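User: I've been trying to design a sequence by hand for this structure and keep getting stuck. Would you show me what you'd pick, starting by listing the structure so we're on the same page?

Assistant: Good idea, let's start from the same input. This is the structure you sent:
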């Protein structure tokens, strides 16, 4: 019987382009493969033992003949390549139709944002980097105008120095921008980035908050809550679901801090779901490699804590092709690695067309009612 599930989402960890990737400009993308090639090989022994090397050719990662867990790949039916679409489908909610997200900082967007905030903004560009803070931070300190930009997946970033615009005020502005913009254009999320420091040494703080549209329908988290299961969200998980269905949310935005919190959760969550988002990928290749290898080392600590009835699931929410001249989100498959005491080992879960299969599996394991999308693969996990 399964009583507690730990779901770790490696943000941006794609392992190969989806069939419709070309329509997104992402044909041939393979985040992990390119990252491994550029770094001349990755050292991820714990993910390797779980079967990661059986999901593709990644330099430095061996295909194990007897992996410690079950392995497969998850695809996405929901259109888009942002965290909101990825996490909602992982939680069993699929958006089959809808307008594509806005991916450029248009004049219409600038006007809408200005109307929502009651003031002009600085930056007003498209990038996945945090460079607008360094570039416009000093001007922001003089004028008080927030810094705004859009990423490659339609998310608006709104940044302000904590001594110029207090974080709570920045949250209010981001929340109002989300509310006002959703009526006129397909903006799915506004992220508030408080930062500190002086010109040349600006740095974002741990007070980041995500303000996203609420899922239009019920998700796995709602179903688990109705089944009286505990749901703990770590990282940006709580924000991505607007807090709905989450027993407790711990917003953290550094991978090491997220792993620390997940390990602490074992003494606080005797049952239910511990659902964490781990920020892995960034435009800085060396930082990405270092973070990914740090998470891999911490996995052994987590595995050592697992008891009979515990399940560890490692997956992703989209790709992040860091090898392109303009790095950004990419339309890719993600890994699905499942392990735990007395679970089956070495079972190939195959290539699943929708990540909702994972939600259906978790829901069935924890006694929740069936979701509208996805097929459970729980039977394949049962030890033979």
């Amino acid at each position: 019987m399964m009583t507690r599930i730990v779901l770790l989402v490696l943000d941006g960890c794609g392992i190969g382009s989806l069939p419709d990737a070309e329509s997104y400009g992402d044909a041939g993308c393979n985040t992990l493969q390119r990252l491994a090639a550029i770094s001349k090989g990755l050292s991820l022994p714990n993910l390797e033992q779980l079967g990661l090397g059986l999901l593709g050719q990644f330099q430095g990662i061996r295909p194990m003949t007897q992996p410690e867990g079950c392995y497969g790949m998850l695809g996405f039916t929901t259109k888009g390549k942002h965290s909101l679409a990825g996490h909602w489908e992982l939680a069993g909610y699929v958006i089959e139709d809808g307008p594509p997200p806005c991916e450029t900082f248009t004049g219409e967007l600038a006007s809408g944002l200005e109307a929502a905030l009651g003031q002009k903004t600085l930056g007003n560009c498209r990038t996945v980097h945090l460079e607008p803070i360094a570039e416009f931070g000093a001007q922001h300190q003089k004028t008080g105008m927030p810094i705004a930009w859009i990423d490659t997946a339609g998310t608006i970033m709104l940044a302000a120095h904590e001594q110029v615009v207090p974080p709570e005020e920045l949250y209010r502005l981001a929340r109002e921008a989300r509310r006002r913009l959703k009526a006129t254009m397909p903006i799915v999320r506004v992220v508030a980035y408080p930062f500190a420091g002086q010109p040349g040494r600006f740095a974002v703080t741990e007070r980041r908050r995500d303000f996203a549209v609420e899922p239009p329908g019920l998700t796995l988290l709602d179903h688990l809550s109705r089944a009286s299961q505990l749901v703990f969200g770590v990282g940006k998980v709580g924000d991505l679901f607007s807090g709905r269905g989450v027993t407790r949310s711990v917003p953290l935005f550094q991978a090491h801090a997220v792993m620390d919190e997940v390990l602490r959760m074992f003494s606080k969550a005797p049952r239910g779901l511990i659902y964490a988002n781990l920020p892995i990928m960034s435009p800085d290749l060396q930082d990405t490699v270092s973070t990914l290898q740090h998470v891999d080392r911490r996995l052994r600590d987590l595995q050592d804590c697992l008891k009979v009835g515990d399940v560890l699931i490692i997956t992703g929410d989209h790709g992040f092709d860091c090898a392109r001249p303009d790095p950004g989100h990419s339309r890719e498959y993600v890994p699905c690695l499942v392990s735990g005491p007395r679970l089956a080992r070495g079972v190939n879960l195959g290539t699943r067309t929708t990540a909702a299969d994972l939600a259906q599996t978790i829901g069935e394991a924890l006694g929740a009612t069936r979701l509208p999308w996805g097929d459970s693969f729980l039977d394949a996990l049962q030890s033979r």
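That's my pick for every position. To get oriented when you compare it with your attempt: Residues 285-305 form the longest helix (21 residues). Residues 66 and 346 are 6 Å apart (CA to CA).
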